[in-house]
Design brief:
Blueprint: H1 10-31, H2 45-73, H3 76-100, H4 104-119, H5 128-131, H6 141-147, E1 155-158, E2 162-165, H7 166-178, H8 187-204, H9 206-215, H10 219-235
Antiparallel strand pairs: 1-2
Helix pairs in contact: 2-8, 3-4, 3-8, 6-7, 6-10
Length: 275
């Protein structure tokens, strides 16, 4: 029997990760009872804070030093090209999700962005579409579920992946299927691309991380509230309706999150300024 080379790649490892994560979440949802003073949007706060501390430790020990070295050593034009390349791949998946949300103009513009940047922008290294004023509409499957009325559910901090919600965690395996990087047949190339993407995105958040440490009294609650606000704002394309008072987040932060600080603060940043 010949072993499938894809079995040794990142997608297979991530599939096992999500299987274990699903089992863990099931045990958590069944076994953890919310205390009388629990935040209704974060009933598993003790668990989440533990994962947050783990992520922060890995981020501090591994990703921040690597991302800092990458930023300092790699010329800015090269970093911009790398970021543009992965952002272009996101536009392809955004086409699908904008179609699923019946957003015709956004789907067309995402399609043309991907086509123009791929064909004229050297595979996406150059962001020609932005120069042509073709608007970017980044959407993932979590956005699509939210658009069709699926509530975000409890806040969850995922090991290595950072802030999420129950809805967005359920959507993650679908988003992985829509990620063009996971479809690269050559396993070493696929794994290298996945690692470079994480490092590149983490390097872009170094300044935001420093600002977050300066403005937030409690980085955990700041990140949680910012995550919910950003995701909700993106689902409604920047024009969210007034929230039901029962669903509003408690006001625990007095400062606005710095630009870029709305992304994951766990070591593996899975969004690049993604709404």
């Amino acid at each position: 029997m010949t072993a499938n080379p894809r079995a040794f790649g990142v997608p297979s490892l991530m599939s096992r990760f999500f299987l274990g994560l699903g089992i863990l979440l099931s045990m958590l949802l069944v076994g953890c009872a919310s205390g009388p003073n629990a935040n209704p949007r974060d009933p598993f706060e003790p668990f989440n804070r533990g994962v947050y501390k783990f992520n922060d430790a890995v981020d501090t020990a591994v990703l921040i030093p690597v991302a800092t070295a990458y930023r300092d050593v790699t010329p800015a034009p090269v970093r911009h090209g790398v970021g543009n390349f992965f952002a272009n791949l996101e536009d392809a998946w955004s086409v699908v999700n904008n179609v699923l949300q019946f957003k015709g103009q956004a789907a067309i513009e995402s399609f043309f962005r991907f086509g123009v940047n791929t064909l004229i922008g050297l595979g996406g290294v150059l962001d020609v579409a932005t120069e042509m004023n073709i608007e970017k509409h980044t959407k993932d499957f979590g956005h699509t579920l939210g658009f069709w009325g699926v509530a975000p559910g409890p806040y969850l901090v995922l090991p290595l992946l950072g802030p999420s919600s129950l809805r967005d965690t359920v959507a993650l395996p679908v988003d992985m299927k829509g990620d063009l990087v996971t479809h690269i047949e050559h396993v070493p190339t696929r794994n290298a691309a996945s690692v470079v993407r994480v490092i590149d995105r983490r390097s872009e958040l170094l300044k935001a991380t420093k600002m977050l440490e300066e403005v937030a009294l409690d980085k955990y609650t700041f990140t949680r509230d910012a995550y919910f606000q950003r995701r909700r704002n993106a689902i409604y394309d920047g024009n969210p309706p007034d929230e039901d008072p029962a669903e509003q987040l408690p006001e625990q932060n007095i400062a606005q999150p710095p630009s870029g600080a709305l992304n994951n603060t766990g070591p593996a940043v899975n969004e690049k300024a993604k709404p």
